[in-house]
Amino acid sequence: VQLQASGGGLVQAGGSLRLSCAASGRIFFSSNAMGWFRQAPGKEREFVGVIGSRSTTHYSESVEGRFTISRDNAKNTVYLQMNSLKPEDTAVYYCAAAPVRSVITPMTFFERRTAYNFWGQGTLVTVST
Asked: For a disulfide at 30, which of 16, 73, 85, 111, Cβ 3.0-4.6 Å?
């Protein structure tokens, strides 16, 4: 299984970017929750948001209302639309896939890195002042 993240770049504060993550290989994409994490220099990797197998979404407080996750199961792709970007959003962004074993799994479960089986290579987002 491969997860290929793309779409990162340099953007001014207040601007927007859309990241994509395409899955390939032996993965039943539609049965996976797809998460986004980020890691800023010198900091631990942190949860950004997740979209469940039924397209329910859950976000960290720091991005709630600014970021939106969507998925296209026909293309095995998940997206992270980032609006109103701030310098503190600067980080390497990673996508990850987690199998959904039960429909009653709470979305907060997917805040944990250990919930995910597969990780992409990361794409750098830099927000300038």
From this structure: 73
